[in-house]
Amino acid sequence: MLNRIIKYSLLFAFVGLIMAGCKKLDSINHDPTKSTTTEPPYQLTAAEKTVMDVLYSTLQNGYIGMHYAQFWSGNTRVADSQYSLDEGNNGTLWSTLYAAVNNLNLIVALNANKTNVAAQNQNAIAGILKVWIMQILTDTYVNVPYTQAVNVGEYITPAFDDAKTIYNQLADSLSANINALDPAQPTFGDADIIFKGDVVKWQTLGHSLMLRLAIRMADADNAKAKSLIESHYQAAMTSNADNAEFAYLGVDPNRYPMDETNRRITDFFVSTTLVDYMRATNDPRLSIYARPVEGLTTDTIYGMPYGMSTTNPNRPSAASYPGTRIYAANMKGILMTYSEVAFTLAEAAARGYAVGSDAATYYEAGVRASMAYWGITDGVDEYLATVPYTGGEWKNVIGTQKWLSLYPQGFQAWFERIRLNFAKPDGSALFIAPVSGSLDQHVTLVPYRLTYPLSEANANNTNYTAAGSAIGGDTKGTKNWWITY
Amino acid sequence: MRSHVLTWLWLCFAIYCSIGPNRASANVNRPFPTFSAVTAVQQQPKDTTVKPSASPVVITPSASKPSTDTNKPATATPVTITPNNNNQSNKADTNKPAAAVITPNNQAKDTTKTDTTKPAAAVITPNNQASDSTRKDTTRPATATSDSTKKKATDTSALILPSDSNTLKQEIGQFTLHGVVKQPGGQPIPGAGVMNLSTHQGVAANEDGTFSIKASLKDTIKISAPTFGDQSIPLTSKDSLPVTLTSASTGKKQLQEVVVTALGIQRNTRAVGYAIEDVSGSAVQEAKEVNFVSSLSGKVPGLQVSSNTGSMGGSTKIMIRGTKSILGDNNAFVVVDGTPFVNTNVNQAGQQNGGGGYDYGSSLQDINPEDIENISVLKGAAATALYGSRGANGVMLITTKKRPDVGGGIGVTYSLNAQADQVSVLPHYQNLYGGGSGGKFEKLYYNEHPEAFLSESAATYDDNDGLGRYDLMPMYRADESWGPKLEGQLIRPYYSFDKDKGNPYFGQTTPWVAQPNNVKDFYRTGYTITNNIAMAGTNDKGYFRLSYGNMNQVFVLPNASNNRNNISFNGGYEVAKGLKASASVNYTAYAAKGRPGTGFTGPNPTLQFTMYGQRQLNIDMEKRYKYDDGSQITWNRTSWDNPTPLSSNGPYWNRYMDYETDSRTRLFGNVGLDYEASKWLTISGRVFMDSYNALQEERTAKDYLIGGYIKRVPTATELNYQLTANMKFDLGKDFKLNGVVGGNIMHRKTTVTGGTTVGGLIIPLVYNLNNSVTTATPYDEYTEKQINSGFATASLGYRNFLFLELSGRADWSSTLLSENNPYIYPAASASFVFSDLLKNWKWLSFGKVRASVSSVGNDTNPYQTDDLFTFLPGFGSNPMTQISNTKYTKQLKPERTQEYESGITLRFLDERVGLDFTYYRRKTTDQLLPISVSPATGYVTAWGNGGAVENKGIEASLNLNPIRLKNGFRWDIVANIARNKNKVLNMDIAQYHTSLTQQTIGTDRRTQRVSVIGQVGQPLGMLTGTDYVYNDKGERIVGADGNYLISDIKNLGNVYPDYTGGITNSFSYKGIYLSALIDFQHGGTFFSYTNMYGKISGLLDVTADNNVRETGIIAKGVKEDGTPNDVVLDANSYFINNENKTLSKANMYDASYIYLREVKLGYNLPEAWYKRFHAQSARLSLYGRNLWLMHSNAPNVDPSNILNSSSNIVGIEGGALPSVRSYGINLNVSF
Q1: Which among B687, B685, B748, B691 is positioned nearest to B721, based on CA atoms?
Q2: pLDDT at A440 over 60
Q3: Residue B626 neighbours by CB under 8 Å, 6+ apart
Q4: Mutate to test the interface with A, among B934, B997, B1012, B1041 (most CBs of A within 10 A)
């Protein structure tokens, strides 16, 4: 009896075993907790935010953009001010921007697979954002992957494209996307944090970004710059109401990245370069850009000499941190503001392009727009009297004010610094070399680009090597094609 | 045979999967026509062999196990039974000396089942063999058969079954027992003590080792002799009792006669055609580590165990024969009594590359070391082929104890282990300069801030410059020690402010003096107490063992403790004739508190002592870490009037306020039935389960900082259903065939839930995800995986000296698409005991050659085939998704490994010399690669197949017995060494039509320049980084500014050592033994955060040696024109510019070391002592672990103690915790 029980129980055990094994193996291998599909609006919000997060991070904007624009200098960590590049920060900048391009491309792919009435506008907005991101990439690194980028199935090791070619393609792409926008059609709505899906504003931004593209190549390709600016300036931003900004919510996890509500940011001091010039011109923005020194010294704004190491006996024991609004939780991530457009048009006018008004008009509009941006109404006229357009060579006059207006857009300010190579309006030097010297053997005054991140040397070595030699060496000393001096 | 079996098996699967369950059940009888033929007994098909030249037949004790117990380890001191004169087998083919068939006396009638067709067996234990020192007292139910004519000597095992008490009752009255006590070489042991434990009468052996003693059946006779392991033998026969005692010298059993191979199949070492290492439980029991695996370092050739003792039960990386998989897991697969043990790395990614986090360690520490009987290390692919894809990195088979340590019946063993732990190998700090930068103090003037002083006169200094009196203040904000010289100046310490908080130290000054021991004094003496009690019993129907263990560790760090409870039960019973049921249930619960953070992270004590910090801090004052209002007091205050910590909490705040806790409960074990369907067929079914629930909680106190709480609840459950048929046939008199056919279904599910607070805590000190300022971000992860398998193995033996084994396994893994399934792993091995043919070579005791060829593989993790979108926390009401940064692919195939292995085992000169040598060559192809791709692809990682890695190596072990004196003194040496040469052959990825040149395995988190990479043509695990620039003469070139020129990133060395090994010397004399293990590693490179940060922060001695802070430093090297560099840099600039993140080579070191790893002094307590407690044996031992780093080329860190996690990212020392040295005492009493 027992044996029979045993026999049958074994039998059933065996059958059970076999049946358990018959579960379809392929069906197990799908993660039930992850999505294999998504919607364009979710992708757009994420792309806008992730790019803003990296562009205004203390690591990328703080240690790279704001440093190279010489707005800030390091507190205890001075090596970055001496152009020792933190490769982690560099790699994150690169990978975040490309990942955003990949995510924006997906919007187009998702729209191709279904009938979405908003598809046309959505794709165009994604396209404009791509142009914005790709220009930052090529301005930062010169030649970068573009035509073979974000296509892993075809190009696991994408080739680098020539920077000038990329510029031309970006201009074409921007035109096409501006034209594709149709205010009569539906769009993203609230998922678009920047413009809440306002198609007209996207058109305006598109034209404004075209001005940014064009003015940057003005020295290297004047004819193209001229034609682009002349054909787009009228549709570009005309006031701060057109500003393209990403409004952070001010609460976790959607705070402005350089925000010190949770923990103080003591990594950076404002530089003497910024403070001394602003103080000399009695710039009303100074108390916004920097805050009084804390601790021992009397309450005044003092800068830290740029790139002065902690061992330097002349180093002040303390200096001013950037202003509280720059470190506020609800500070906006700036994509582009009207003051940049105004200064661009001022420069265009100075270069003799037909942009409707003269340089001085646009210059004054730029300064006023910047003041208005920070809510400054008092003392603007006096300030303009101190820094009039006629004060000197246009590059120095416009350059200095454009630089000041770009605070805290570190990357754009850095690009303009190295493009215009400007001095103070009176012609005296504004920028200095790091006081304790550059730690990069290829640059003394300022890096002209970032070296390619290590990921390219490691994972894309052949193309990386080719790109390095194509641009004249993968060093911070290699100048972009639009720098002609 | 093999192919038939496989075909049969697949057919079964195919049929049952394609038809309905009804028909399946109708068919299921067919494969087992012998179900009803229940005649045979439970016999383990196991080879034991006769050593023809040896006159006594030694039965290895493990043979006593019933066949059902396939996991039964080979253990313990062998018992030698001299055959009776009348015991000659009348089998025609037994020209061998006699079967020692040992069965319960009166069961001899029932001998159809003993099936003893061959003289039984077994080999003399080599007397230089390291015997199991904790198991010196071995009681065996030993009965020499009195009626051998009825018995057929078993061809497999001499079955030793416990006495049948009913029968024995009839044998009343005493008789005179005769016997002889010998050494394994056959020499008698004069004067050996022989004791009847029942009557407590004792005699001593004569000069020739013979003895006579009055005894009754069922009495237990205990034989002991100095330096030999005791044996306790319950009598079941009146026959003469021959005893062979083996040395009690070391804890290692390298040449164990019976080894446990894949799936728990026991085989005689003769029959094994591949290298296998057998370590007895005592190796991990006496000198304990919290995680038993750490104790194996240096004890097994080719097994590399890395750990970090300072991390309190942290990770162990268990690597066998080098690293094989470029980006996959390289850790050995661990199996406990057949139960696959889930031992995946659960640490966060950022923790692995030195970035910081907690090392939650290896879950292997859930295993109670006291329950371990035996560990088999299966190294090669041939040894592990039966484990299919899971055995690709080698297998560690752990067999737990199932029977009493002593005697039959019921035995109780108690062991107590008490150990003290102290930190050792602390960095060398400078004690000349205090905290700050630029060598400066700051001044606090009374006139400016009278509120900071008790009174104007309390201000210490006055320069009479009209500014008034002032105090000197260190730069509290500077978390480095480039401050003023420590010359006793009176200063205002950080704790002399905060008047509004009622600070009693307000306004006080303190001298600016060195505190040379402020780091050492932070660490306390830790204690680990382990208690274990086990009760076990056997009888003819079954066995059981119950064990309870408790481990209590008070760690060297304040507020750090670890507590573990283990309960285990092992039991088996013959429920019906031929049917045995067995179960093994293990429950573990551990709880840890205050685990140190690792890497570059606040909770890592080395962050503020070595990587950053101020040298002059008084550790006693730091113990006062908060005010009555709960706010923190830290040396790193923002300024004198702002107590907010700038970047560093005080060390005690970290320990007591920002602590983590974690715990895990785990249940693992198996239940099974073994059914002896016929004489040649046993069918076994088993269900194995391993299931755990863990809880990890990380806290940051809300104070000046916003606080935070992270909670993770990882769970894992793995079930294995296994059915096997064990077959054995005699093919004529010369051939024997053993085979196993089986199937296994593995199903694993893991989850991680929990979350992290966002925006800080609302209420301080309440750690709950609901106490989050903004809604907490949840963790929600899930994986599921299944592998269906069929396997078969067949072993053919010819005359017990020539063996051939074939095995194969087919796996269907859910992680690969069906078109890539199944994948098949075949293996073949052969062994030849040539010494059997060379009997007249007297000097040669044993010689065997072996060879194997095999192909195994590896599947991958779940969910690598579908592209996914990840959710980001919503932007207000706007959801956000992103493309996963990993590109998945449908194309994945299994990773394949081919291995050739050959080896030789020799023992000669009367067993004074034993040698084992293995050569292997292993090629792992089609690697499953999460390829690091250019982020310009939009992805960071893309899955693909390709690449090939070759490992070639040798493993050698040597046993020597240089001294073996008549008075019992012995000296034994056991040495092993392994060398592995690794090379990446290619990284061709067909799927992407590309040939990669290198792959980054991991990049250090902080400098981002140092990477561990695989590069074609180089060994896997090259460490890359920037180097100096050298001229033709090899001199370092210094630029005009006095700083070294820095090269591009290049290869700077291999992270893995060239060779590793260990030497154990042991001495034994009269019940006392002393052993010492030295382990070593030669080669290997690592990058050191401890040194880099310690230098740039001015904490290490080199930053103040030779007065460099006063005179400056000239970088050693030449200018570009070749003239010597003469640019003097101040010391701070020198270190920041030249030994910092940009110049990786400056902090790369050789990882070679020689370590006095373990010393044990053991003493068998005299019988008179333990008899009073009615104990059967007692042993006391003293030990030390991690005693002395005898040689190292790396400053400030212990190169054997730099592991961050068990991942492939090695060679990046991320602020390693100091090593912990332990001294302990172990008491083991058996009743």
Answers
A1: B687
A2: yes
A3: B632, B633, B653, B657, B703
A4: B934
Residues 6+ apart with CB under 8 A from B905: B255, B269, B846, B847, B848, B850, B914, B915, B916
* Contact map slice: B 691-730 vs A, CB within 8 A: 705-706, 721, 723
The helix (H) or strand (E) run that includes residue B241 is: strand B241-244
Interface of B with A in 434-463 (CB under 8 A): 437-438, 440, 442, 444, 448
Beta-bridge mates of residue B920: B901, B953
Give the mean pLDDT of A216-224.
96
ipTM over 0.90: yes
Residue carrying structure tokens 């000399």? A280
Nearest by Cα to B222 from B189, B197, B244: B197
CA dist A244 and A194 (Å) reads: 6
Task: Report pLDDT digits (tens) over A131-142.
Answer: 999 999 999 999
Chain A: residue whose CA lies nearest to B759: A252
Residue of B nearest to A31 (CA): B863
Instruction: Give residue B1147's pLDDT.
Output: 95
Q: What is the pLDDT of residues B963-993, one digit of tens each?
A: 888 887 889 999 999 999 999 999 998 888 8
Can you read off the two tokens belonging to residue B300?
A: 């097994």
| B 474-533 residues inside an 8 A Cβ radius of A | 475, 477-480, 482
Pairing mode, strands B913-925 and B895-908 = antiparallel
Question: Is A385 touching B (CB cutoff 8 A)?
Answer: no
Q: Does B987 touch chain A (CB under 8 A)?
A: no
CA distance B1018 to B982: 8
Question: Binning pLDDT at 50, 70 and 90, where does residue A194 land?
Answer: very high
Q: Does A31 touch chain B (CB under 8 A)?
A: yes
A99: nearest CB among B885, B1003, B1009: B885
pLDDT the model gives residue A5: 66
Cα(B661)–Cα(B163) distance, integer angstroms? 50
Q: Are B1053 and B1139 in contact (CB under 8 A)?
A: no
Give the amino acid at B1180: L
Comparison of pLDDT for A19 and B1087, the residue scoring more: B1087
Q: Is the pLDDT of residue B733 over 80?
A: yes
Contact A480, A139 (CB under 8 A): yes
CA distance A82 to chain B (A): 10
* B72 and chain A in contact, CB less than 8 A: no
DSSP-assigned states of every residue in B154-216: PSS--------HHHHHT--SEEEEEEEEE-TTS-B-TT-EEEETTTTEEEE--TTSEEEEEEE
The tokens for B1100 are 């290490």
Q: Say yes or no for a CB contact (<8 Å) between B881 and A42.
A: yes
Share of chain A above pLDDT 70, in %: 94
Instruction: Identify the H or E element spanning B535.
Output: strand B526-538
% of residues, chain B, pLDDT over 90? 45
pTM of the model: 0.81
Position B950 pLDDT exceeds 90: yes
CB contact under 8 A, A459 and B1000: yes
Q: Give me the residue spans of the domains in chain A.
A: 2-257+329-470
Candidates B889, B937, B1012, partner chain A, best to mutate (most A CBs within 10 A): B937
**Mean pLDDT over each residue of chain B, to the nearest integer:** 81
Identify the CATH number of the domain defined by range A2-257+329-470. Answer: 1.25.40.390
Is residue B1194 within 8 angstroms of chain A, CB to CB?
A: no
The four Cα atoms A381, A384, A386, A391 give a dihedral, to 10 degrees, of -150
Least Cα separation, residue B126 to chain A (angstroms)? 43
Q: Among A450, A484, A443, A485, which Cα is nearest to A467's?
A: A450
Report CA Rg, chain A.
26
